[in-house]
């Protein structure tokens, strides 16, 4: 495993040493008790191998740096990667207090190499690397990942050999590349019924340029193209051809929102088949797979990402790379030598960009990863002043003349509503429209307008307070009504902005971050069937904006729109200006993650690196068969039943769940999981709780 990133010799020693502590009399006694059915507390063994490795290294080097790449993975292969300082203290204390243990391990290791010539012949030199702290920190993570994954796989092969066959039953990337090439033309032909010829030609051109650029040497690439120009098929074509050309191991498609992952994974499965794609995220509904063997294969591959194509979330991808826990870190070594597509890359949280992009750079420079940064609003990371982490992140653009492409794909007219708009004015403006989408910055605003509208079968609402299964059902209904020419008024928050395949003739968007505005515009006249769609940018009279970088983004948008005409939003260079201003006004490492990485403090890095910073609790809401799914999970807790339950979960603030529980609206199931007994509206989902004083009268 580690040979894929040039660390095979280090990994050999991890494999030899990680369980050497099991020769101790105490651990052997524990095994005998367990075998005889007696109660016994487990004896620690990981510290033994870490301590002996530390002694071996002490004879070869000054222990100021480099030792942690061997010792910390061994020490933490069950409990998690420790802080380097605490790790050193524990190891030195063990050596001081366990002289007999050191002799025991030395004798055993010597005997092992004498008795087993096959192992003795393979023993590599202990290689010491004195790299900069961030490089050492990342190397230790990757070595930890291969050790943990190899340990799990070895255990699986002992207890259940059938699993190994399932793990190896995924198709090869070169065969998938051939399938994709054959299926692409048929797929484009299907789109002709819903898209105009000009749009089809543009999508085909994007596809062709992606294939041509795939021949280039590995590194960092950008795909800057307007919404609706076929980026998904384009970047998949690039990834497959680039992977085959440069012998990459897998393709990982990373998206910021669960609301668009289902759509992307469905598109890929439609072309390549269900047997080719692992969809790994919190809202994946395992019930869509009716093949039991394929379900088992999905469950196994979700552990370590040993599949040809993975579709996952930004949170899952990056938080795993910064974690210190075995179950999360197990997969990250399989990111090495892969093609990673960061779709809607502009959505990376600004306050975590420092460590995030440093990790991207490290994976590209040291682990053979080719990155493709895909978006209609390219953030231009390399333009940020004084940020060394952005060095070398200047990607090669797949469509050099993207300005011309944006002009050709101009399908909407932007208008700015003069002054602040009252609720009555907004209501009158959209009341006579048969098909319109209104996007707000806050759920409170979306809920208010929805409640003011006439409630009929053509009025819909979307927000994060609906579970994923509910949102998916509404989106499918909305999409079908749009295609059938029926009345649709969709009042929503930002959950539909990026990548969701909707096509409205008119979109109203509350003033927000500039990239969010253009993403909302991507849901207007998406398929080019109208001469021109209309996007109206408005500012509600009643203030309301999420805080943090989002609020800063709103202010930067207001400044830019005062200095530019609304139609300048068709110019992609305006977004480079916007992001440059935004990043200069935001702390790009608000939790000082890079300082903890420099100090090689893995627990603190894992604690501080959170893309969703507010702690939340998960509540299972009463929607469709959620009660049955919850019952299955409680009766048979497993990854499969958990995946079956997740599409029915809504996240609420952790600080609110206690008050909800006290009122009887939520009941704890386990840990951070609750069952919801409070209001769950068929339109609004999990609603805020407003208590009538009359409820207190008995």
Q: What is the CATH fold-level name of the largest domain?
A: Rossmann fold
Structural class: alpha/beta
For the biggest sheet, the summary is: 7 strands, parallel
Number of helices: 29
Indicate the percent of residues in helices: 40-55%
How much of the residues is beta strand, in percent? Answer: 5-15%
Judging by the overall fold, what is the CATH architecture of the largest domain? Answer: 3-Layer(aba) Sandwich
CATH class of the largest domain: Alpha Beta
Distance between the termini: 68 Å
CATH superfamily placement of the largest domain: P-loop containing nucleotide triphosphate hydrolases
Walk across the major sheet and give the strand order: 3-4-2-5-6-1-7
Gyration radius over CA: 27 Å
Number of strands: 19
Q: Please, what is the average pLDDT?
A: 88
The stretches of 5 or more residues where confidence is low (pLDDT under 50) are 690-698
Shape annotation? globular
Count of domain modules: 4
